Every structure is written in C-alpha cells, then in structure tokens.
Amino acid sequence: MGSLVAAKRVNGHLGVTEPISLSGPTEFDVIKTQELEKFLEDAGLYEKQDEAVSREEVLGRLDQIVKMWVKRISRAKGFNEQFVQEANAKIFTFGSYRLGVHGPGADIDTLCVGPKHATREEDFFTELHNMLAEMPEVTELHPVPDAHVPVMKFNFCGVSIDLLYAKLALWVIPEDLDISQDSILQNADEQTVRSLNGCRVTDHILRLVPSIQNFRTTLRCMRLWAKRRGVYSNVAGFLGGINWALLVARICQLYPNALSSMLVSRFFRVYSQWRWPNPVMLCEIEEGTLGLLVWDPRRNFKDRLHQMPIITPAYPCMNSSYNVSLSTLRVMTEEFQRGHELCEAMEASKAEWSTLFEPYPFFESYKNYLEIDITAANEDDLRKWKGWVESRLRILTLKIEKHTFGMLQCHPHPNNFSDKSKTFHCCYFMGLQRKQGVRVHDGGQFDIRATVEEFKQSVNMYTLWKPGMEIQVSHIKRRNIPPFVFPSGIKPLRPLKPARKPSKPIETNCGINGEKVSVIVPDEDDKQMYTEEISNSNGHLFEVSESLDSTSEARKRKQMEDASESNSDDAKRPFLHPNKSPESVPELEPLETGSVNQQPSEEAEELAIKNIFSSPSTAIADMPEELDEYELLKQDKCLEETGDDFPAGHTQNHNAQCEVISIGSLEELEPVELSAPSFSELPAATTQRRPLIRISFSSVTRETGRNT
C-alpha cells in the first residue's frame, strides 16, 4: 500500500510525473470512441451474460472446494475439531478476468490462499489434486509443481482454470483478507511471493488509473491489436497481458480525462517516441521493509540488461518484461510507429479502425525463415516437450543476435502450428533479415551452424526427456512455407509481377571520392537480385548485392526519416538516457488547464513526452549507457512460463530443468546448406531436412544437395 501513497503527490495526480494533458473529450473523440466500442463488440470481445454467470458459479464452486480441502487436511493433521471448523482457504482472481477485459472462452487465473499448515507439495499438489481428480466435472487436470510459479491447470465445467497457491504465515485465513497489504508477505517463501504477485499487481493497477472504464476499453483494444499484429506473447519475447495493462495504465495517467479513442491514439504517440530502456512505471519504486529484491539497475547487474523495462507497481517491484530482446523490441517499435501513423490518419478521416487491426502478414514479410519442428511419442509427451522448447526459443534469438554481432535479426512468430498429417507434431517459425542500414559486401555470410547446434543441445538437456522427443531446425524460403500455417490450409497466391521495364543507366555521385559513375538499376517492380558495378578512379570494382524489395523499403524509410526531421528542429534532439544530465532538455512550460476541453498542440505534447525523460526516477539514475542483453544468458539457466498474462518471478532465479507449460518485403537472404550431425539420434530410415548452416548475402545462389 505504500506504493499507492507515493503514487499520489500533493496536487493529487496519479503517476511519477504530471499528466501531459488534462483536456477532456471533443465531439470527435466521442464519435471515434463509439466507433471503437462498436468495432470491439463486432470482434466478439465481450462474453454473453450466460457465460459470465457460468464463470461466477465455477468460481463459487471452486471456493467451496478449497474450504473443504483445508478442513480435511487440518483434521488429518490431528488438529482439534474447533480448529478444523475455523480452518479456511480463499480464492482470489487476477489477470484479464480480474481486470475485467477477458473475452469469451478465456481462462481464469486464480489463486488459492491457505494457512501455514497447508503445504504446497503434499497438501495442494497431492490432496487437493486427488480431490479434483475424483470430480467428473473436472477434466484435463495437469499439475506443474516444478514451474517457476507452481500451477495446477484444469477445466471445471468447461471453464479453463489456472490455480496457484500461496501459503501465508497465518493459522487461520480471514474471509476479509486484504492481500494488497505488504505485511501479507511477512515470512512468505519465494514461491508464495511470486504467486501473490499477480493478484497484488492487478489490484494496484485498478487503483492507479483515473477511470477504470476507459482503462478497460483501451486495454481491450490494445490486447486485440497486439494479437492481430503478432506481438502478444511473453514467452516469445514480446509482451503478455500484464505488460500491456501496465503500458495502457501509464497512458491513462498521462491523459486522465481522455476517452478510449484518444487514449489509443496517445498510446502510439507516446510509445513510438519512448526511449528504451527508460522504464515505464506507474509509481515510484519503494525498497519496502521485508528485504525482498526489487528492480534496481544501480545495484542489480541483471536489471541493467533489460531492453524494455515495464515495472510492476506492487512490492516487490519487478520488471515484468525481461523476456524482451533486441529483435523483438525492434518489431514492437516498428508496430508502435505504424499505429501512430494510422491514428494520425484516422484523425484526418483518412483511415478506419479496421485498418489499425489488420493482421500482420508474417509469412509475407520475410523471404527467409527458421522452422523449428518438434515431435513426441504421445500427446502428453508433446505437451511437456512443447512447453520446454517454447521456453528456450528466446535463447535461440539471443544467441543468433550475439553470434552475428546483431547483424542478423530474428522475428519469432508468437504462435505454434501443427501439421495434421503428422502425429504429435508442432512447429515454430522465425523470420530472418539482415540488420537494416548496413551495406552488404560480396560473399558476406552468416554461419550459424554452431549456434543452431548449441541451441539443440541445450534443448535436449531436458531432464524429463523421453524417447521420441525430437527437434529439428531448418531454413526455408518464403516460397516453401508449408500450407498448414495458413488459416484455410491453402497457401495464398502471390500477385503476378508486371512486365519488367527496360533498365536505364543513370549517373550518380556515388564513387569513393564523389565522382560520377554509371549504375544500372532495374524497375522497382522487379523482385530479382541485381548487381551494381561501380568503378572509381583507381579502377577498383565493387559488387553490391541487394534485393529490390529491400532498396524500395530503404527508400521509403529514408523518405519518412527526412520528413520527420524536417517537421521541426526539436525532432532532431535525442531523448536523454537516464544517466545523462537533463540540462540539455528545455524545461516544459506547464500546459494550460483552465478548460478541460482545451487541446494542447502536438508540439506541446511531444515536449511533454520528452520531459518525462528529463527527470528520471532515482531508481534508474545510474543506468549504464550500453547494455549487453545477451549477458543475461549467463545467469538465466531456465526461462519458464506459466501463462502469458503474468510472467514468472520477482527474483528471476530459475531452476535449471523443470516442466514448462505455456498458456504468440525485406532483404533477400540466400541459403547455403551443408550437412551437420543432429544432436538427437533418429532412426536410420528417417529422412530429415538438414539444419540451417549459413545465411549468405552473396548475389550468387549456392545450394548443395538440399533434402526435401
């Protein structure tokens, strides 16, 4: 509760900074908000009344079950009858259900709070598990006791339930227990602290936003947008439910009187300009009195490695988005920019809400992909193997970034796919591209053979490995994407290319010393590789291989950069890193707030956004300038997820091996495939596609004996 007190300053505003604008909604905002709500309703984001009643009944039944359970184990442990009758346990909810943004068919994140004599291992995962297993209305019961946040998963009367357990240092759990109090963590073990974190964070968020209704509508919008655009998945290195809730809550604090349509627009405006790794915080970070580890880059080296810190408001404050990598941050930053441009177009009546929510064309956006195929002997083994592999995919992204010095970028698809023609099969995809803005030299290649083998070896170290659990990593071109990844099961046809126009030589000052040279450039509609031969006065020949897709995209990016730089001189001023002096940033003039309907200019809002970074929190004042994100691999032995909404762990101490169950026209890269032994032995009769060995940027295609 101390964080909530610190969140409000003398003048009464919520958050660590003053609001950017106190303006109320205009008539246009009201109309756009009505359109947005209609769009969300048509998208099926709201559950029907009968389903809502069914969920409430299930939660009531579950609460009765845990109360029966705690009395049963109390009696079995020899306590007197009076104590047995007073024994109590209580069910809390968190996640999307508690926030009020869940949709039809969504699971319910629940927490069982029990007394000190009800143990997690023997009583919760054994006795309660057996009670649930005997009930006919309970199906698909699966305990995961060794996960970073231990969880029991099951379906209750058709409703999916994720049940955590927190053992408090109390003999009797009062019915009016308030778990938002920091004292509830007294003498609690780490697993209990992590289990309580979801409920505590959810309650704090709802108390730290000025309007819960506007927050909920905006969050529903952003969750749908993130899923459509392929950036909703904590385990894949993007953001999960709690991350999006915190980002939206911060925008609500900065624009406390805005309606949902304006909040969505300002969401993209603010975060398209955000200078990571400056953290997003709803309130100041407090040390607390219990000695629990909090996010503090001044003291904790691992905290300095986080690329996109989004800090939870409940003690102990932690970074909820430590899974984000350089590559996934790049993808999300580009999506924020796209959203900002479309929202500006909507304000000019040049776009509709449907355009903002168009699905991201993942399998059309890259020309080269990594395909990770996994198989198992049966459905239960596949589920365990799948959870383990998913938790390691982020490691593959980090290693590729590290071993190629950040030159080869990965874009993981947040979802998995299954080939129905194969039994117990699942696969994942990663888009590959060369880092933009770097020229390609002849013969330049990325040899990631050792990287792939190292990843496969780490995956096969799974302690619960069983025969039949296999993994293959291979490179495929866009034209060879399997049809089962598409919703209809049929690969869509690409539009025919128009007839190629004759190439014309042009003269340009691109010589080494600025002299004019002739460059033959084909028409922009041509999608083939081309070569520019440039001779300077010394007679040296330079061969530059590029994809015309990449050059046209580069032109567009350059035009956008030039346009943004010409808007104002202030746009050229970089944001401050937390350890830089704020003296170079001008003081922000207070916005006029005499009338809540007075809209500040876009320039004033941009200055206000920049001002957020001019006075950083004391918790981040000494962050280093350069962070080596890959160093996190040296300390993280296991990345585990028990669900997208609330990533595990405030201490981020991972067990090395454990069962994991998870609850999401660029450059041409030419492949060169060589043979390499697979770490996992397969039967001799099995033919498998050879793993990716190297990615080449040469204009000459080299393919040697590719297996199909």
Molecular structure report:
Helix 8 packs across helix 9 and helix 10 packs across helix 12 (326-347). With 708 residues, this protein is α+β, with helices and mostly antiparallel strands. The radius of gyration is 27 Å and the shape is globular. It contains 19 helices and 16 strands. The strands form five sheets. It has a five-stranded mixed sheet, sandwiched between helices. Residues 214-358 form the Poly(A) polymerase central domain. Its cofactor is Mg(2+); Mn(2+). Residues 534-603 are annotated as: Disordered. Residues 362-421 form the Poly(A) polymerase RNA-binding domain. This is polynucleotide adenylyltransferase.
Question: Which short descriptors sum up this protein?
Answer:
alpha+beta, five-stranded mixed sheet, 19 helices, disordered C terminus, ATP-binding, PolA_pol_RNA-bd_dom
What is this structure, in a nutshell?
Its EC number is 2.7.7.19. With 708 residues, the chain is α+β, with helices and mostly antiparallel strands.
Strand segment count: 16
Q: Provide the residue-averaged pLDDT.
A: 76
First-to-last CA distance: 60 Å
Query: Uncertain segments of ≥5 residues (pLDDT<50)?
Result: 1-10, 498-596, 621-708
- Strand arrangement in the largest pleated sheet: 1-2-5-4-3
Question: Helical amount among residues, as a percent range?
Answer: 25-40%
The backbone outline, from C-alpha atoms, is globular
